[in-house]
Amino acid sequence: MNQNTLDKMKNLKLYGMHRAFTSTLELGSASYTNDELIAFLIDSEFDDKENRKVERLINTAKFRYKAYMEEITVSVTRNLDKNTIARLTSCDFIKQKQNILVTGSTGVGKSFIASAIGYKACMNGYKVMYFSAGKLFAKLKMAKADGSYHKEIDRIEKQDLIILDDFGLQSLDSHKRDFFMEIIEDRHGKRSTIIASQLPVSAWHDVIGEQTIADAILDRMVHNSMRIDLKGESLRKKNATTEKK
């Protein structure tokens, strides 16, 4: 009878419940009342589904780094304090439809922090997608050519959080400018966006180009945004020096 029950659990894809029931059979379930056993099985199935959901969200996001908030170095020299990390860890900015602008020189940890925030958002059940800005614009240009553009834009719009990394490495041409404007316009006041850039926000106007569109994009992005301006030496260079020693 127990094997028949286990088979049915597996057929119904109740994998968490299957594992929990198997363990009770191996260890003995005499210590459980009927109510306790049912609660244990349901809790196990719930936890299993939540874990698989988080794993699926992380895989879909395609982060640049496997990063966690607990790994972020907080220090005055980095211009990063515990209160800022606590605010980011709570993911309240997503509920508030707030944007985050992360700036700083090469190697100071912009991509790592952006990825860590994204990981935390996935763990909290939010849909996240990570993009290198240049690669995203190239992909959208190809999508325009093969007719899948609107599908890609709709997919981006539906994400609770998107991360645009390495923004500003190249000035935007008219096509990239239009793509960027549409993404920001679709998400404005509805979803959160993180932009990471080597350039200070004051230089973004020149990168975007055409004044009217640049004004419109920056008005939507900068308004109601949280800014993180990282300082200090390159962590990549520092880590490489440490490894050589």
Topology:
Elements: H1 2-11, H2 15-27, H3 34-61, H4 82-90, H5 92-95, E1 99-103, H6 110-123, E2 128-132, H7 133-146, H8 149-158, E3 161-167, H9 174-187, E4 192-197, H10 204-208, H11 211-222, E5 225-229, H12 235-244
Helix pairs in contact: 1-2, 2-3, 3-6, 7-8, 7-9, 9-11
Please tag this protein with its features.
245 residues, alpha/beta, Rossmann fold, 2 domains, five-stranded parallel sheet, 12 helices, 5 strands, elongated, disordered C terminus, ATP binding, ATP-binding
Describe the structure in your own words.
The chain is α/β, with parallel strands linked by helices and 245 residues long. It folds into 2 domains: 2-60, no CATH class; 62-244, 3-Layer(aba) Sandwich (Rossmann fold), CATH 3.40.50.300. 58% of the residues lie in helices and 11% in strands. It has 12 helices and 5 strands. The protein has helices at 2-11, 15-27, 34-61, 82-90, 92-95, 110-123, 133-146, 149-158, 174-187, 204-208, 211-222, 235-244, and strands spanning 99-103, 128-132, 161-167, 192-197, 225-229. The protein has a 5-stranded parallel β-sheet with strand order 2-3-4-1-5. Strand 3 (161-167), helix 9 and strand 4 form a beta-alpha-beta unit. Helix 7 packs across helix 8 (149-158). The longest helix has 28 residues, at 34-61. The termini are far apart. 31% of the residues are buried. Mean pLDDT is 90; it is low at 241-245. Residues 96-232 form the AAA+ ATPase domain. This is ATP-binding protein. Keywords: ATP-binding, Nucleotide-binding.
